[in-house]
Specification:
Layout lengths: L2 H15 L24 E5 L3 H6 L9 H20 L11 E5 L7 H12 L6 E7 L5 H5 L8 H6 L10 E3 L4 E4 L8 H5 L2 H11 L5 E7 L6 H7 L4 E7 L5 H9 L6 E7 L13 E3 L3 H6 L1
Parallel strand pairs: 1-4, 2-6, 2-7, 3-5, 3-6, 7-8
Antiparallel strand pairs: 4-5, 8-9
Helix pairs in contact: 1-10, 3-4
The structure holds adenosine-5'-diphosphate and magnesium ion.
Amino acid sequence: MSVIENAIKRLQASRESAGAPLLREQRAVTPPRRAEPEPGVSGRIIPIDLDALRAAGLLSPSHQERELAQQFRQIKRPLINNALGRGVKALPEGNLVMIASAVPGEGKTFTSLNLALSMRLEEDVTVLLVDGDVVNPRLSQVLGADDARGLLDIIKDPTLSASHAILQTDVPGLSFLPAGHQDPNATELLASARMREVVTQLAGHDPSRLVLFDSAPLLLTTESQALTQSAGQIVMVVRADDTPQHVVLEALDTLAESKSVSLVLNQSTKQPHAGYYYRYAAAQSADKDSGT
Ligand SMILES: Nc1ncnc2c1ncn2[C@@H]1O[C@H](COP(=O)(O)OP(=O)(O)O)[C@@H](O)[C@H]1O
Ligand SMILES: [Mg+2]
């Protein structure tokens, strides 16, 4: 049995007994939408330059776009259902979704961005992508907002509100909150009572707004562990055939039992007809993937 399968089985056992759902496969119909500024979002509009993001390795090459889009449809569906209570009971704070992983390079930033772009296509859903990787704010850098006011600044200054820092993008339904200026006390800031207020502002009293947090590696940073307290759903990205089982399990152990955790298997090469694939698989299809 593979490393990842073992991790998933353990996750299933612990979470199923707690009644928390795991990822399931479903398809979405994603109609086009018009660009409209969201309420509570500052005036500046940042462009989402798909070519630049592709060059930065954060979007798939064009020839694999369709396949990846399909995989992200499958991944987003249960997250959206849990957040909005569609067909299932809504999870507490299920609209706050953190993309986490044990160590760097597993695909958190890639997943955050692609999931955000996929989720925003949903009807009646808007997405706020938050650069919660305050240690290595790559999203803020590639989106040209690394100097902008962001999450840490709002937490630090109670006279600011989230709307002072959230940036509208030129992609309909997608806004972005940069990480903000670095602070040596970032962990304490993210774990603070003020962070709770900020998170409430991020959700914007709008049940249809999904807030997606990119984050720093759980096992290497205390900042990321602090951030888990704010999320209602946690997506653990595991780099297939690479991350050792004990590392995945150690990262899962840092999460509170009450959290709903899903696993995303990233960059698996186990495809029947290809050499290298950007493979995502939901937890429940992992057995099938590793067996073929
Ligand atoms: N599914 C994927 N397909 C293609 N490239 C990927 C995929 N996941 C991650 N990568 C690449 O792997 C590298 C690390 O991914 P990244 O999202 O930055 O990891 P993390 O944020 O966990 O440190 C990036 O250069 C990214 O381009
Ligand atoms: Mg990252």
